[in-house]
C-alpha cells in the first residue's frame, strides 16, 4: 500500500470575507496554509503551528472542513482542514518555503488557487456558516479504579496518566480560542480542566447538572442548551456524555454518531452556528491525527 502522509491546515479567513493564500516558490503554486504533522504531534496543534509558520498569523480553529486526500508521487497525502480566524498578526517574512502571502476575496482566491481540491474546500466553506462557536464536551481524564478508592467518590483524583492527559488537553483546547469552563463538581473533572483554566487565565464554574449522582440526562441537556452557543468546555462523566451528544444532535436535527460515547480524556467539539451544527469532531489528547 502507498505510504500515507498526514498533514493539517486551514482555510484562514477574515472579514470581507477575504482568504489567505500562500505562494510556494519550490512548486510555484498558490494554496491554503498546511503542512505535515510531526511525529507524535496532535493534528490540532499541527494545524495551528503550520498557519503561524507559513503566515506569521496566530489563528484559532473554527469548524471542520472536508479532508483532502490526493496522490503525491508514490505516496498519498491526507490533509485535515479547519476554517480558522486570525487572533494575532506579526509581519510576514518571506522565506524559501513561502515567499508570498495575499488576502483575496472569494472570486479572486478561486482564480488564484492552483489545485482543484483547494477550490472545492473554498466552495464548501462558502456553502456553510462562516462564524461558528465551539462547544466542547469533555470526559474527565483517567482517575484510577473506582472500586479501589475508599473515600467519597467526588474526591477521587486523577492518577498519573490522567495528569498527563490533562496537561496535554490544555494546549489542544486552546486551539479553539478562549472558552468558558464548566465542570462537574468532582475532583477528577475539576483537575482535568485545571491546566486549561490556568493556561487561559480563566475560572472554572461547577454545575450539579453535569455532576454524576446529582443529575440525569434531561437536566444535563437542559443546562447544555441554556448556554446559548457561548464558547464553552463542559467537563463531565461517561454516564452523561452520550446523552449530551445524542440530545444535542437531535435538537439540531443532525445524525447522531454511531458511538456518541467517549473514552476518558476524549472530547467532542460541536461547532455551532445559530440553530445549526456546522461540524462535530472527536479527539483524544494523545492521538496523532484525527479520525
UniProtKB/TrEMBL annotation:
Keyword set, alphabetical order: Hydrolase
Protein name: NUDIX hydrolase
Organism, scientific name: Actinomadura chokoriensis
CDD domains referenced in this protein's UniProt entry, alphabetically: NUDIX_Ap6A_hydrolase (cd03673)
Alphabetical list of PANTHER family matching this protein: BIS(5'-NUCLEOSYL)-TETRAPHOSPHATASE [ASYMMETRICAL], DIADENOSINE 5,5-P1,P4-TETRAPHOSPHATE PYROPHOSPHOHYDROLASE MUTT
Recorded family membership: Belongs to the Nudix hydrolase family.
Matching InterPro entries: His_Pase_superF_clade-1 (IPR013078), His_PPase_superfam (IPR029033), Nudix_hydrolase (IPR020476), NUDIX_hydrolase-like_dom_sf (IPR015797), NUDIX_hydrolase_CS (IPR020084), NUDIX_hydrolase_dom (IPR000086), Nudix_hydrolase_domain (IPR051325)
Highest taxon, organism lineage: Bacteria
Domain spans labelled Nudix hydrolase: 3-126
Molecular-function GO terms, alphabetical: hydrolase activity
Amino acid at each position: 500500500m502507498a505510504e500515507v502522509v498526514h498533514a493539517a491546515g486551514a482555510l484562514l479567513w477574515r472579514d470581507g470575507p477575504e482568504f489567505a493564500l500562500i505562494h510556494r516558490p519550490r512548486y510555484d503554486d498558490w494554496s491554503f496554509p498546511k503542512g505535515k504533522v510531526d511525529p507524535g504531534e496532535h493534528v490540532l496543534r499541527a494545524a495551528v503551528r503550520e498557519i503561524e509558520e507559513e503566515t506569521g498569523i496566530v489563528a484559532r480553529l473554527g469548524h471542520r472542513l472536508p479532508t483532502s486526500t490526493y496522490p503525491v508521487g508514490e505516496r498519498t497525502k491526507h490533509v485535515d482542514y479547519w476554517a480558522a480566524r486570525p487572533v494575532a498578526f506579526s509581519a510576514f517574512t518571506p522565506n524559501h518555503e513561502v515567499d508570498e502571502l495575499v488576502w483575496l476575496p472569494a472570486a479572486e482566491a478561486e482564480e488564484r488557487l492552483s489545485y482543484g481540491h483547494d477550490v472545492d474546500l473554498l466552495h464548501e466553506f462558502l456553502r456553510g456558516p462562516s462564524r461558528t462557536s465551539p462547544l466542547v464536551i469533555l470526559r474527565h481524564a483517567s482517575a484510577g479504579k473506582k472500586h479501589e478508592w475508599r473515600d467519597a467518590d467526588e474526591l477521587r483524583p486523577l492518577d498519573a496518566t490522567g495528569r498527563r492527559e490533562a496537561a496535554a488537553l490544555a494546549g489542544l483546547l486552546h486551539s479553539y480560542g478562549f472558552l468558558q469552563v464548566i465542570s462537574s463538581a468532582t475532583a477528577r473533572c475539576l483537575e482535568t480542566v485545571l491546566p486549561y483554566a490556568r493556561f487561559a487565565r480563566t475560572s472554572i464554574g461547577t454545575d450539579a447538572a453535569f455532576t454524576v449522582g446529582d443529575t440525569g440526562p434531561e437536566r444535563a441537556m437542559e443546562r447544555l442548551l441554556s448556554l446559548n452557543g457561548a464558547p464553552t468546555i463542559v467537563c463531565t462523566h461517561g454516564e452523561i456524555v452520550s446523552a449530551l451528544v445524542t440530545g444535542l444532535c437531535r435538537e439540531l436535527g443532525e445524525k447522531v454518531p454511531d458511538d456518541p460515547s467517549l473514552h476518558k480524556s476524549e472530547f467532542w467539539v460541536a461547532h455551532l452556528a445559530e440553530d445549526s451544527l456546522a461540524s462535530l469532531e472527536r479527539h483524544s489528547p494523545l492521538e496523532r491525527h484525527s479520525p
